[in-house]
Task: structure prediction
Amino acid sequence: MSDPTPAPKTPHPTPAAGMGALVSSLKHVVQNRGVVRNLRSLFRVNQPDGFDCPGCAWPEPKDTSRVGEYCENGVKAVTFETTAKRVTPDFFARHTVGWLRGQTHHWLENQGRLTHPMRYNRVADRYEPVSWEEALALIGMTLRALDDPNQALFYTSGRTSNEAAFLYQLLARRFGTNNLPDCSNMCHESSGTALTEQIGVGKGTVTLEDFDHADAIFVIGQNPGTNHPRMLSELQRAAERGAKIVTFNPLREPGLVSFTHPKHPLRTLLGRGTAISTHYYQVLIGGDLAALTGLCKHLLEMEAADSGKVLDRPFIDAHTDGFDAFAAQVAAADWPTIERESGLTRDQLLEAAEVYRTAKGVIACWAMGLTQHKHAVATIQMVVNLLLLRGNVGKPGAGACPVRGHSNVQGDRTMGINERPPQAFLDGLKSAFGFDPPRHHGHDVVGAINAMADGSASVFIGMGGNFAAATPDTEFTEAALQKCALTVHVSTKLNRSHLCPGRDALILPCLGRSERDVQATGPQRVTVEDSMSMVHASVGSNPPASEHLLSEVAIVCGIAEATLPDGDIDWAEFRTDYRRIREKITATLPHLFADYETKVDHRGGFYLGNPAHDRTWKTATGKARFLAHPIHPHVLPPGQLRLMTVRSHDQYNTTVYDLHDRYRGVHGTRMVVFLHPADLAARGLNDGDAIDLHSHTPEDGLTRTARGFRAVAYDIPPGCAAAYFPETNGLVSKDSFAHRSRTPLSKFIPITVTPAAGG
Ligand code: SF4
Result:
């Protein structure tokens, strides 16, 4: 007889950040060794004349006199890069790839900065030093030997600067392919697809200043406390001036409950926090479309009862189309379905709708909790439908705010890192360089995995990132990588992808953001774009971690010169002076980057602009579009739960800084699954029991198993579960992806839970 169902664990009694953030930050400054270098770097991160935090893409405030403009996870991201730990040729001489494959993501990433270019020796199963010349020549020779340029894949992680990303896409396209999969395929691709169709631009419409004017901020499927921590400062300021913060999230995330800004010493000492969410709804995993439909239904019913008093009719009439079909769709949705599918009551949704109705300006923020679902595009379009009802796009204090997870993922897309490039971009490239780039669409991340597996692609080049850990279907993806003739990873740290070498493999160590990038014409700066379309400079000042590192730009130019030796592009000029790259960016995108160099000189950078922010709708109809979407019921076989993968608080994307998640009360381990006590009891399990997870993928009918977890009784809706990635990415099928955006379904994995095999 199992023990009576214990009360769900309250994750974190005290406010988020505060003293805990200070202690944790100090710990990472020390444990990453090189304390002086780490501290000096923290004085320069996110400063107007400093370097951009290699963490998330939350913008910097315009106030250029800011000090300590970083969060706890920014400290982890920076000190992880500025660490004094090194992974040298000796390290690789001591460890075979086979042995390294037995180590955890945390162990691998904590070994330090790569110092030398390394080539895989298959016979010895070790990486061995190689010269840059040999490495670049090998890449050039292998690429030139391909029958078809589409046998090559050029993957990008969102840390790549604008300049390196622009040259990388130029290299791929001059070589003849659009195979430019990137990390946004796995994160905000659904946002880009939804927004482009609905408002004419695939980016958020708000600026940071809008947070000062919003009366209500809806935070949907996002955990800013861990993933965009400086956003909490904006939410705190908004809450303190009386704005309503309305949260939809299956988990009760401490950062969205209460927050103490570490810069407020007295509050920090006293542990006094600001209540953040005025309304917190623990929606079912996958229940957001139904919840949003419920909000819209209430508003339409209010309007019907009090015509002209609820909806912004003048805006709807002047700026939108599709309203009637949308309203009919919402009217057809019945409350029992809305309540069942959202896990929320009609009254709860009425409460939230009231907040929306009474607010003059509303911002809606979201992240992976919306984008990694089968109907993600429809759900995000329902967010925008909600905003359009009261004209909450293109006015102060209002708008759409998909918050990007990687520091320059939005910039990379602007630079042309896109397997489905807009024709206008390709036309711009043609006029800037005089060649006709390939026009057929290339492989996204899922396409790249399949192409390596079926052998139609045999060269994988990764510009940053950790492809093997970030992608779904881990076992399948790792095997696909190892089928390649050549895998190349441009990296700062050792990671799992390096341990899935192709028949030949290279690790190319690059400069970090915090490091000086000196080329023939002197120190260079790069530029990045944040979630709110602000472009600014990033200039490193630390001495490189090793004299053998090259900049991302220099590496791309080196690969290009080796691959396109008789080319018509002067890669050496780009390497020598990054202003030449920006000139070509301006030539390719004149409507966005005119006077690029001058604008970058402005302290804090410049705003790229956003037509929807100015109520100019570059959609197929020239209007902002109401788009009707039915609720898609989630029917799981008995005994199955819906699992979502999440980050711990000591993690950034696939980078595992440490083994704690103090916001959820987990310490020293990552092998945990958060489950509702009733679901544990129903399976004869208890808090702390050893369990295995089995996913059941409708798309391919396969069952995948992940072993060795502990059950954690937690405050999560019954029927739902959460666990960390990358440890559970192996449960996600590569064939399970969102409609239209093809984003892997990491937030809705049908699973069963059993006692651990072997007890
Ligand atoms: S909020 Fe994001 S960008 Fe800002 S310091 Fe933290 S991790 Fe870095």
In short: The longest strand covers residues 703-713.
